[in-house]
Amino acid sequence: MQEKRGVRMSKKRYEIVSYDIPLWLKPVLSVTETSIYTGISANKIYEMSESEDCPFVIWIGSRRVIKRKSFEEYLERQYSI
Q1: Residue 72 to residues 16, 32, 38, 76: CA-CA distances in angstroms?
Q2: Of 27, 41, 53, 54, which is most buried with the most CB atoms under 10 A?
Q3: What is the CATH number of the domain that holds 26?
Q4: Is there a contact between 35 and 42 (Cβ–Cβ < 8 Å)?
């Protein structure tokens, strides 16, 4: 074990594990994933999700994620976007 500035550092390195979950199974999507999933541009999704009372957005700090099912239901009710 190495010590660096009074903090013990183990030699083990943690690897970031990525899971390939299909977009249609994920409960929340990033704006980019939503764009890929729906074919709607990311800029349009940002524009649609700006309002505070947006029914399909969740804010995680300053990052927005889209509730997939709510967004699908929202799109079903719209005539144009």
Answers
A1: 30, 15, 9, 6
A2: 54
A3: 3.90.105.50
A4: yes
Q: What is the pLDDT of residues 19-58, one digit of tens each?
A: 789 999 999 999 999 999 999 999 999 999 998 899 999 9
Sheet containing strand 57-60, edge to edge, reads 28-29, 63-67, 57-60
Q: Is residue 24 included in any domain, yes or no?
A: yes
Nearest to 40 by CA among 49, 51, 28, 52: 49
Beta carbons within 10 angstroms of residue 16's beta carbon: 4
Q: What's the predicted TM-score (pTM) here?
A: 0.74
Q: How many CB atoms lie within 10 A of CB 36?
A: 13
- The answer to whether residue 1 sits within a structural domain is no
Range of the domain at 38: 18-77
Query: Which secondary structure element, helix H or strand E, spans residue 46, and what is its range?
Result: helix 42-48
| Count of C-beta atoms within a 10 Å radius of residue 64 | 19
